[in-house]
Specification:
CATH architecture: 2-Layer Sandwich
CATH superfamily: Bira Bifunctional Protein, Domain 2
Number of helices: 5
Oligomer: single chain
Largest sheet: 9 strands, mixed
Length: 234
């Protein structure tokens, strides 16, 4: 099968709303292309960003999983958004690689479950590059360490997506040198009694963010049989 071409852009540090609007723009452009008879083909994108501190709640999640009142969030400088992705509550912040693939799954496989497993596989392979065994936890989307060891389960990557006419948006949040104290104020992904971790915590040292991004990009190309090309996005 021919490799799909994916336009890659690292958009740097962004407020959550800015990145959300950008994704929506790219998704809607692709949806319009699909609606046009004999029009131009859809394009694939992969965006990387780091967000200012923010809690985001999935469409099926519960605000009760945020343990701070609105005024307390404001005092701590943490934004909050109720989003249109799947999943429950999670945190985005500095030193966390957030990846937003805007892909036309009709050019890959029209299977959301397979798509989620592929996103997990990208992170699992990246963790293996650092000699850490990433794993899946049955019924809990994302990437974990020791998911089958009671009391030792810890999540390192949250995943939540939206799909419209087989065009994806939202994606994954991989904790690299993330300040994990922010997770103390939520019930991460609505799952009680399980920990959150980061590459830094597991390895006992700070990790170069650009190095991690390059590993993720290479593994994304491998898992999705794709070629990432850097282009200027408007």
């Amino acid at each position: 099968m021919n490799k799909q071409r994916i336009i890659f852009k690292d958009i740097g540090s962004t407020d959550y709303q800015v990145a959300w609007d950008y994704q929506e723009k790219l998704l809607q452009e692709n949806v319009k292309l699909k609606s046009a008879n004999n029009g131009p083909s859809t394009s694939h994108y992969l965006l990387f960003t780091e967000h200012s501190p923010v809690y985001t709640l999935g469409k099926s999640g519960s605000k009760e999983n945020v343990l701070l009142a609105d005024d307390e969030l404001k005092k701590k400088g943490i934004a909050f958004f109720h989003t249109n992705r799947g999943g429950d509550i999670t945190f985005h912040g500095p030193e966390q690689v957030v990846g937003y693939p805007i892909l036309d799954l009709e050019k890959f496989e029209t299977d959301i479950g397979k798509y989620l497993r592929n996103l997990e596989e990208v992170i699992i392979l990246t963790m293996a590059d650092y000699a850490i065994k990433g794993d899946r936890s049955p019924g809990e989307t994302g990437v974990w360490i020791d998911p089958g060891v009671p009391g030792r389960e810890r999540k390192i990557c949250a995943i939540g997506v939206r799909c419209s006419r087989w065009i994806t948006m939202h994606g994954f949040a991989f904790n690299v040198n993330t300040d994990l104290s922010y997770f103390n104020h939520i019930i991460p992904c609505g799952i009680n009694n399980k920990q959150v971790t980061s590459l830094q915590k597991e390895l006992g040292r700070s990790i170069d963010m650009e190095e991690v991004k390059e590993e993720i990009k290479q593994n994304f190309e491998k898992v999705f049989n794709a070629e990432l090309v850097s282009e200027v996005l408007l």
